[in-house]
């Protein structure tokens, strides 16, 4: 709710009704008038509105705030009386009045009509707003003073911010200078970091909800849409906010939800609006705004001067993927903040354009920036402020039902993560740090998408817990080998003398999934044929001898292999060998061999398939010698062997090549086969290994 600037008044004026009692009309030019009647979007409000409108009438819908009657000139509470002053402003839910206590202190009273609180859900929302705001103690958050009620209204008493809001400033000035916006953004970020440290998401950050105190410092207000997370992994699903400021995941993430990143998005919208003069997705039509937000359709007008550093920060803040947006600490590390930075905001800010570029040196700006960081709580330990997570009222909120004269529980009325400031003078070095941080965020976001999409559709039964631990250990070892190769690539690679020796691995050349009846059959590049039976056992028929292995699980050893000659086979395994022969004939008649590899002299031990897992994107084979093979749907195949040091590529036309992984990472593709898209696929390979390395019990396997 945007408050009009407070005018100084005398005693006679204090109880007089203002001449500006009419509802302020919010200007379309600045982006606040985004729904009919200037309402912000909120599902609960819309439901409440629909419940109480009369279908037969076709008159214009009224705001819930219109139900709020003007408070009496003398508001009596328990032990304290307040005198009503000027009407200050109005939002979709409440009206705000200036009031004064007997000692002469002036406050702002957010007034909510009891008639608008028709359901227990609406009541709980109001109590939640009060509890969250009451718990906030920060120099850049509007201070909560008290709350009380009379027969008609609930009053939320707040610190008075007499100099208007950022929206008022933008209306008067049209656009602001970058030094001013640096100062404002730092104070806003201080408040947001504090809120997030207490697991509170504001969800309605906009220029009209950020106010100037007496000294023109900024304070965030209006916690009507704020939410508390039970833990940092929890997501919220309510579609809420003011259209121009809503993050794309709020609009599109009805199933995936949203979290702290929605407030980061709002910072980007506000930054753009202050520097350009209007929000980035501005349109007269709300649906057009939403469509632009969903595809992040915005640009920087050529006629508006804005530094490249500011553009970079805004573009990162307005990343479509929430995980690609910088954290508050990362925001403060951006090069843009190393520009001219004022020590404070002048009282003439509403009417005059300051020229800090001519009055401040770079060194003075660095000192001013540091002081602003300290005052805003962005350099921790400088302020002894409450950082415990917010706890909403539990049973006390729930136990008291709607009573017309008792909305508020009695107890609502009253009687720091490390951030180390670094003084960076080398702007080029700082730009490189920003770029590295951005690359890391993009990489994490990409992995998160892969993780979400990588779901196993089938795998073979493994009954032994020690076997699962062995498999998890092998996955972990190979994953670490890949990560080590990536680190070596960043350092320029390895000298020729330190590159691993090329050894072609044993790979799966044919396979048939017949698990709906017998099991999973495969042929190796050694020509050995195996079947993973549905009961968890394996029979491996050797190609170069009349022999076979029978492999079963053991609670102490993992796998136990028994060796037999075909002529001495146990009677109970006769049926197993018949199935092997069936699959052998089928694969010989119907399947082509996918690799040119054969048995090599260094292949000393017989190898069998320990586990296969089918995903939408690929099939993953885990062989007993520690080789991992990935057959992708586009018929490109990769094997990772030698603990992650070697990568083997098998093309759709069956060419088979092995390379040191670090060399392929340096080149960025398989030589001669750019269509294999190895760099894209290595991310999927890493995620597959990561998932499997975390499964260490039979129960966990069944759950997955």
From TrEMBL:
UniProt domain POLO box: residue ranges: 507-589, 608-694
UniProt entry tagged with the keyword Transferase: yes
CDD domains, per database record: POLO_box_1, POLO_box_2, STKc_PLK
UniProt keyword terms in alphabetical order: ATP-binding, Kinase, Nucleotide-binding, Repeat, Serine/threonine-protein kinase, Transferase
Molecular function terms from GO: ATP binding; protein serine/threonine kinase activity
Entry keyword annotation includes Cell wall biogenesis/degradation: no
Catalysis: reaction(s): L-threonyl-[protein] + ATP = O-phospho-L-threonyl-[protein] + ADP + H(+)
GO cellular component, one term: nucleus
Stretches the record annotates as Disordered: 48-67
Binding site for ATP: 114
EC number assigned by the record: 2.7.11.21
Alphabetical list of InterPro entries matching this protein: Kinase-like_dom_sf (IPR011009), POLO_box_1 (IPR033701), POLO_box_2 (IPR033695), POLO_box_dom (IPR000959), POLO_box_dom_sf (IPR036947), Prot_kinase_dom (IPR000719), Protein_kinase_ATP_BS (IPR017441), Ser/Thr_kinase_AS (IPR008271)
Source organism, top-level taxon: Eukaryota
Enzyme class: transferase
GO biological process, one term: mitotic spindle organization
Segments forming domain Protein kinase: 82-337
SUPFAM superfamilies the record matches: Polo-box domain, Protein kinase-like (PK-like)
Family: Belongs to the protein kinase superfamily. Ser/Thr protein kinase family. CDC5/Polo subfamily.
Annotated protein name in UniProt: Serine/threonine-protein kinase
Species of provenance: Vanderwaltozyma polyspora (strain ATCC 22028 / DSM 70294 / BCRC 21397 / CBS 2163 / NBRC 10782 / NRRL Y-8283 / UCD 57-17) (Kluyveromyces polysporus)
């Amino acid at each position: 709710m945007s408050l009009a600037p407070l005018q100084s008044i005398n005693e006679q004026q204090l109880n007089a009704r203002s001449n500006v009692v009419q509802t302020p009309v919010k200007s379309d030019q600045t982006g606040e008038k985004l729904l009919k009647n200037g309402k912000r979007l909120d599902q609960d409000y819309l439901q409440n509105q629909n419940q109480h409108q009369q279908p037969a009438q076709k008159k214009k819908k009224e705001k819930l705030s219109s139900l709020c009657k003007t408070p009496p000139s003398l508001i009596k509470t328990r032990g304290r009386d307040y005198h009503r002053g000027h009407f200050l402003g109005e939002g979709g839910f409440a009206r705000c009045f200036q009031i004064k206590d007997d000692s002469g202190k002036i406050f702002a009273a957010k007034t909510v009509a009891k008639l608008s609180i028709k359901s227990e859900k609406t009541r709980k929302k109001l109590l939640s707003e009060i509890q969250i705001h009451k718990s906030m103690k920060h120099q850049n958050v509007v201070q909560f003073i008290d709350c009380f009620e009379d027969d008609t209204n609930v009053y939320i008493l707040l610190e008075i911010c007499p100099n208007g809001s950022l929206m008022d400033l933008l209306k008067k000035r049209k656009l602001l200078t970058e030094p001013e916006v640096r100062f404002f953004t730092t104070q806003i970020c201080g408040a947001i970091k504090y809120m997030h440290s207490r697991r509170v998401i504001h969800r309605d950050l906009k220029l009209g909800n950020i106010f100037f105190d007496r000294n023109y410092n900024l304070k965030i207000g209006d916690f009507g849409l704020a939410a508390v997370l039970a833990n940092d992994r929890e997501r919220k699903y309510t579609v809420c906010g003011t259209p121009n400021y809503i993050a794309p995941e709020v609009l599109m993430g009805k199933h995936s939800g949203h979290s702290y990143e929605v407030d980061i998005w709002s910072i980007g919208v506000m930054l753009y609006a202050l520097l350009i003069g209007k929000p980035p997705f501005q349109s007269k039509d709300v649906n057009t705004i939403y469509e632009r937000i969903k595809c992040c359709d915005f640009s920087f007008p050529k006629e508006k001067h804005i530094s490249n550093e500011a553009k970079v920060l805004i573009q990162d803040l307005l990343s479509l993927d929430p995980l690609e947006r910088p954290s508050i600490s990362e925001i403060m590390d951006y090069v843009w903040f190393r520009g001219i930075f004022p020590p404070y905001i002048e009282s003439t800010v509403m009417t005059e354009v300051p020229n800090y570029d001519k009055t401040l040196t770079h060194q003075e700006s660095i000192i001013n920036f540091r002081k602003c960081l300290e005052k805003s709580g962005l350099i921790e330990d400088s302020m002894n402020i409450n950082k415990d997570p917010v706890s909403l009222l539990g049973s006390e909120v729930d136990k008291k039902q709607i009573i017309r004269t008792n909305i508020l529980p009695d107890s609502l009325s009253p009687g720091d993560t490390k951030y180390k400031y670094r003084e960076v003078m080398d702007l080029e070095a700082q730009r490189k740090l920003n770029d590295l941080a951005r690359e890391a965020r993009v990489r994490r976001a990409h992995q998160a998408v892969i993780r979400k999409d990588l779901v196993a559709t089938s795998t073979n039964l493994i009954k032994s817990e020690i076997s699962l631990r062995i498999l998890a250990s092998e996955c972990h070892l190979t994953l670490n080998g890949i990560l080590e190769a990536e680190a070596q690539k960043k350092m320029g690679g390895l000298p020729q003398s330190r590159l691993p020796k090329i050894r072609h691995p044993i790979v799966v050349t044919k396979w048939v999934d017949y698990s709906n009846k017998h099991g999973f059959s495969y042929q190796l590049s050694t020509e050995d044929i195996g079947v993973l039976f549905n009961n968890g056992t394996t029979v491996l028929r050797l190609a170069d001898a009349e022999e076979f292995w029978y492999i079963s699980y053991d609670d102490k050893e993992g796998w136990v292999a028994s060796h037999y000659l075909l002529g001495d086979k146990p009677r109970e395994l006769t049926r197993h060998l018949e199935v092997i022969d069936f699959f052998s004939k089928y694969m010989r008649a119907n399947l082509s061999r996918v690799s040119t590899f054969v048995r090599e002299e260094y292949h000393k031990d017989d190898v069998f398939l320990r586990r296969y897992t089918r995903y939408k994107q690929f099939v993953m084979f885990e062989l007993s010698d520690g080789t991992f093979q990935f057959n992708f749907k586009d018929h490109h195949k990769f094997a990772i062997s030698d603990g992650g040091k070697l990568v083997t590529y098998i093309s759709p036309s069956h060419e088979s090549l092995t390379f040191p992984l670090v060399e392929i990472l340096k080149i960025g593709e398989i030589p001669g086969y750019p269509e294999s898209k190895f760099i894209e696929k290595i991310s999927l390979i890493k995620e597959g290994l990561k998932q499997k390395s975390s499964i260490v019990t039979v129960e966990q396997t069944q759950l997955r």
